[in-house]
Queue: 2 jobs
Job 1
Amino acid sequence: MEIFLQILANGVMLGGLFAIVAIGLTLIFGIVKVINFAHGEFLMVGMYLTFLLTTGLDLHPYIAAAAVVPALFVLGALTQRFLIQPLLSARDEHVQIFATVGLSTALMNLALLIFGADIANTPVHGVRSQVQLGPVRVLEGQIWILVAAVALVIGLQFFMKRTTLGRAIRATAQNRAAAQLMGINDRLIYVLTFGIGAACVGLGSALIAPLYPASPTVGTYFVLIAFVVVVLGGLGSVAGAFFGAILIGIVDAMSGFYIGSDLREAVVFGIFLVILILKPSGLFSTRLNQSHVSP
Amino acid sequence: MTDIATTLTSTPKRLAGRRAATFGLLAVLAGILLVPIGLNDEFVYHIFITICIFAALSTAWNIVGGYAGQLSLGHAVFYGIGGYAGVMLANLGISPWFGMFAGAGVAVIVAIIVSYPCFRLHGPFFALATIAFLEVFRVLALHFKEFTGGATGMMISLNIGWEWMVFRERLPALVIAFGMMLVCLAAAWVIRNRRLGFYLVATRERESAAKAAGVNTVKVRLMAVSVSAALSAMLGTFHAMYLTFIEPEAMFSLEFSIQIAMFALIGGIGTIWGPLLGAVLLVPITEFARGALGAEAIGLHGFVYGIVLMLVVLFMPNGIMGLLSRLRPAESARKETEAAPVAAEPRASGRTDAGEAVMRVEGLNKHFGGLHVTNDVGFTLREGEILGLIGPNGAGKTTLFNMLSGFLKPDEGSVSVRDAVGDWQHPASPGEFAALGVGRTFQIVQPFAAMTVEENIMVGAFHRHAQVGDAREAARETARRMGLGPYLDLEASSLTIGGLKRLEVARVMAMEPRILLLDEVMAGINQTDVRRAVDLMLSIRDTGVSIIAIEHVMQAVMSLSDRVIVLNSGQIIAEGEPRSVVSDPMVIEAYLGKEFANA
């Protein structure tokens, strides 16, 4: 029983980590309707930035976040402005896919050129210390990630529902032409949204860096899981992504222990394929979001 | 530049351009074979063998990713299956020449099982699903160590000779790689120039219009995937023997899959020779970066790839082939005088001899949520009859059409069609309706935008003519009849709305239907065109075709229809001869409101 609870706790903590990576991805998809295949590389860039700031200036990684988050916002905004925006009216979807795949490839290999294939360990500054929570033990850093993910979900909900900018973003997502007629600058909205989505993963990267070593390919693993989470939670749904992430975290931890750690991914991606094929609107969606499937 | 462009439009120069393109292609192919033989350098051989393999893989990918528009980023699955099948069987003493076919067989089975449920996913989601399958295969290959050797990989037992595809010198490997590349190019060329290729592109451009033209969209895409998977697997077998060592990370690699797709994109996605050009230009960059710069520049070639990929999608989304075709003269409208569409004989007055029933509609009911869109609709269509279907907006006309052509299933009721032999059939899918000779147009035109006018009509003509030559002839004939003769070589996307409406009718006419469902083909076209369209429909009817036409242009309805059905709120409220129907108080009320009915 104790082992089960411990694995459950590990799963929830892992889920928090997946959530903080996936939230930005689902936000961008929900508003701009583009799947950002370079999202994992945004995470990787953020982790290297955190690594450089903590080792170079001897900062605490969480303080480094104050610089990493705006940096990632700029990276995201630039991506939208100069890569995605010119392609928004493209007739075929494949150009948008290849655009972000190209960005992903370029960023990953740039990191390989600069840092080499070796891993880069961000100083831990105590966040790897264990905390006893009732019958289970978790890392302090994991708790902060979970807290940050929950705060991000609530904060984004509030932002979207209560602020003028948030309303403008939702309006643009629901009907771009009508939003334009209401005087909303849709291009600016897309640039800001992409920036916010990237900033979310920027926050995630500063929190994750002390727990996981950075490497040029670190984003690939996380982004594949993030895709799973986003589809599971219903495309574009931030809260759905959070619960999807927790679920996948638990599945990952459980299957790692009970089935075999080398088959975890097969289980996770197997679930992904089943959901994608049988219920592409996601597990939690009440509203039909089936824009991506034929009837 | 402009002078050159204008002088080139004359036909002999165009032929010369074509000849130059053929010559260029042969030069590229000869170069791939002869340069390494001439230089006789190990490294050069290696580069050119790699070019052949990537060009072949990319060409095979393009059959699915380009022609069919299903963007697979997991194609290494098939390559990996071929590689493992080849090596495992070779280590059991079976020659890879047989192993490659075993691998291809497994790959085809996997491809069908994997693709079938995924085809309903659009663009990025199909790509995600293929990535997920690739990951599952990689993880399984790592897990089942007893078969695959796991993460440590597998060496082939070094038996040298042609029967093992393993050689001391490089030339035989180049010959095999080159030959396999030719096979892939030939397959791509044949598919693109046969009915299958037209069907694939049509399905990619507009799935519903392709279905209406009688294309079994699932079947043609499964065929494309099967061919592509089989070729990829055979290449995987050869590449594994060439590398003499395989491991899951290399055989089921996402990066490798992206590279395959990337060469096709850069060369020209959906074109026959684009993938070849992409590989010829980009593979040397990789191999030089790897070979010449070595460990210092690790990541350099990938970085260059990524940048090139972004630049290509931004500035030349049609790839190198797109650039080359811009050098060639633009296809101008043919200077052929437009033959007026065949005018119908003046109508024989008092036509009452409507033939036997060809379509029976009984008790159709359809609900969309709480909305009763079709309420107990029933009627019979006779041979050689034009049945006008009118009614205010939202009456359920298009929904009824969708049920009459298999695009929607009715909740209750049935649609039966009499086949050519005279038996009554109960078709259920668009394909079955098309097979029985029911053709339809769409209210919102659905051209295959990337195809020429001629190719658009050919998609319909293939329904009756399996051979490209016959279909082209039939398409030209239909185009002339529809007044589209001068535009045969133009891309459909460049037609005006009137032209697109005519194209819509031409495509369905080329199917030589027995029953024609026309959905507002006259909306938004000018008076002269309406007159021409009316004449055309009458001439079609006089060949024995039965027509149901949804139409708002009353002038047309009145002069065309033998009989009119009025639909309002899903119900038939009036039926009969045109004159009597339009004076029916119920009909006036439905259109104009109560006051007018009493006026």
Note: Residues 1-10, 330-352 of chain B have pLDDT under 50 and may be disordered.
Job 2
Amino acid sequence: MRNRFSRSVQTTIVFLIVGGVMALALGGYFSNASNALTDTLINVQFWFSSRFIAFQDFFTAPRDIATLRQRNAELESEVAELQAQVIQLQQQVGQTAILAALLDFAQANPANRFRAAAVIGRDPSPFLHYVIINRGSNDGILRGMPVVTDQGLVGRVDAVIADAARVQLITDPGSSVNVRLQNADEEASLVGSLTGDVTLDLIPQDTVVKTGDLVLTSGLGGGYPPDLIVGQVVNVRSRDYDLFQQATVQPVVDFNRLQIVLVIVNFRPVDISPLIPSP
Amino acid sequence: MIRNLLALPVIVLAVILQSAVISRLNLLSGYGDLPLVMLAAWALQDEVESAWHWAVAAGLLTGFVSGIPWIVFVAGYVAMVALAKIMRMRVWRASLLAMFSVTFLGTLLLNLFSLITLRLFGVSIPLTDALGLLTLPSVLLNLLFAIPVYAVMRDLARWMYPSMEAG
């Protein structure tokens, strides 16, 4: 009986001590001690946790790498597909932009009737600057018709078959176009070269030619319609002992990037060769 | 005879590739000549009996596409096949070195014919420009094309003349 009583007293005392300690702790009297204790516990837990994660990574990593590799391959495949789509869409956007510009040009020049054609090749010989287009006599294309883009003059049709035509560019060494300088209001002759540079020749010495002057077709000779933009003067060569001045012209058309051109189908070139007296 | 008919699709393909692709890959003002390199490789194969009709067909077709008269290409290609024949007679089992030699001389010949013809037609082309900016780059590109084209034409020749190879 005495023994049971003493146990109850001991239990009560223990509870009272624990309760008192808890009450003191909750009251903030043990804050320093509890902070030190929790810091230690957290550090110990961090140590165990980090070691466990390291072991877990060590044993599960191969499986994760395989999964990641598979996922990486899937994503790379998806990226490749998307890149192909982007390229395709960029091409379509580029073509649409070209066609829109050509349409604007055609609408701005209602006097002319145009036939659009794609450039499908170039002359096999590097001596000539010709392009092959995918429109021919079946589409109303005839020899001598001028070819332009929305930027300016490209050249003229040199030969035609049923579904294709060969166009001589103004950069061709054998090409000669009668032009006029807009600012100087003077006629001249524009000739091509092997390198693709175009030069203005037969400019009278007393004509004032400046860099940046606009060069347009004159219409003389009946080979081209008048007032088609050809390019701008970038360099003038004038020597006292020469009969004429020369000028280098930067064409407005980028001949390396020709994709779609317009053939002026209602223009008929005039053949003036019978009128030229033979020597 | 039936074997020789294969020349047509091969030449047509070469001329299409020349006009659509090779002529856009320029170095300075020059670019390669696939039909020429292909003919040189074909004419140098030991198994091949005749390459003359290939040269004429390639010349006619290239001349049809080009603004230069067809006779220039026919003459140039036939002359190059003749060069290849001479090389085959002189050298036992024509090697890649013979291919380079024929390609080099063939390109020079064809460019010379083209230049003379254009000058006869009144087109003014400075000789130094033609040599430095067009002919030499074209020769270089043709020599680059020579290696893969030679391998392809060798395989084609062995496929077309299997019995000769076995002998």
Note: Residues 10-58 of chain A form one domain.
